Amino acid sequence: MLYREVPKSGDRLSILGFGAMRLPTEDGSIDKEKATTLLHHAIDNGVNYIDSAWTYHKEQSESFLGDALKDGYREKVRIATKMPHWLVNSQQDMDKFLELQLKRLRTDYIDYYLIHSLTESGWKKVKENGVLEFLERAKLDGRIKNVGFSFHDNPEIFKEIVDSYDWDVCLIQYNYLDENHQAGTEGLEYAAEKGIGIIVMEPLRGGNLARNIPSDVEEIWDSSDVKRTPSEWSLRWIWNHPEVTVVLSGMNDISQVDENIRIASEAKPDSLTEGELETVRKVAKKYRGLMTIPCTGCNYCMPCPTGVDIPGCFDLYNSNQIFGGANDSGAKHKYLLYQMGILGERSSASLCVDCGKCKELCPQQIDIPLKMKDVEAQFEQPAVKIKASAMRTILPVFRHINVLKYR
Questions:
Q1: Has this prediction a pTM greater than 0.90?
Q2: Which of 53, 42, 10 is nearest to 145 (CA)?
Q3: Residue 397: how many CB atoms within 10 A of its CB?
């Protein structure tokens, strides 16, 4: 297993992190025996960074880890979990959730505590509620060792958050198709320059870069003199970036653990040749050619005067077109949560008023207002709009119930 150092803490973390969001299940619940075996096997072979969150596996992930990391395993790892910021309205709420997470994890401290899934509106809310003061206080009293945030918005908001506090780490979505999406390469390099450790999620875009490979893409992989699986190509491309500290993988099978550990024992930074990098660029170009809307994520069209997240809408639309169907890419779920305003301000395609300003600015000459109608038709059927409206109404009630429930 290879390790990289978090600049500010000096922690040597395994470049492969164990993501506890996609643990093996049985009858809708975590298969504790199988999941414990996988987790112990990973740790015994050098994995020392475990990532969880309040919401994972219907709020069971943290409790599972608390049980599974007994008998000396807790001391071998760094645990990361996350604050569900949409459920908190005050520092008092933050304290309550942290205390419960410590109890669930059966530990006196959390090694890496992240604010979960930040967008512009979410960041504004938690900042107004005193999250930075809370984090500082929790670090001083020893309940948290290192602090960070996970992110789902544009590079400008990412930089604003980075500059607001002395973060230890950040968690971003990154892979060879997301160089210009969300934080992207621009954000990765910006955070690294500030000495922030970079943790990467969605290295395979929910597994889609490793399965059901289009024949045109498969031909490119096969044409390389170096023979690797699509999964290995994807992981090695990310680990080739020296700025990346850890890549998370949601492993739910022993063969996946063994394969990822093998790759993580060989994938050094700056180790890919120019020819290998060119192969990945060709694959990325081919995937983009399969996209219905030729958006590059340049953001020249932003900000939209009515609040549409234009690049975000197009990215999810394209992802659903390529990776959807029987093996749902999760694009519809992400659109519901982020574009439809469940975990932030609404930024959906239906907000478009056809003003045409974006169309004038688009280097790709995309008829953006026209394509927004396609996005709306894809993601905003009447039933979905009703569901989103209900969820926006219910969320404050759910938040109140959660706070009362754990009082």
A1: no
A2: 10
A3: 9
* pLDDT tens by residue, 203-245: 998 788 988 899 999 999 999 999 999 999 999 999 999 999 9
Give percent helix, percent strand, percent coil of the chain, each to the nearest 5.
50, 15, 40
Pick the CATH number of 3-281 from 3.30.70.20, 3.90.1150.10, 1.10.3370.10, 3.20.20.100: 3.20.20.100
Query: d(Cα 244, Cα 207) in Å, to the nearest integer?
Result: 20
Helix 32-44 crosses helix 254-264 at what angle (to 10 degrees)? 20
> Can you tell me the distance from the alpha carbon of 108 to that of 145, in angstroms, rounded to the nearest whole number?
11
> CA 406, CA 95: separation in Å to the nearest integer?
11
Across-strand partners of 5?
A: 12
> Is 234:176 a contact under the CB 8 Å cutoff?
yes
CA distance 62 to 51: 9
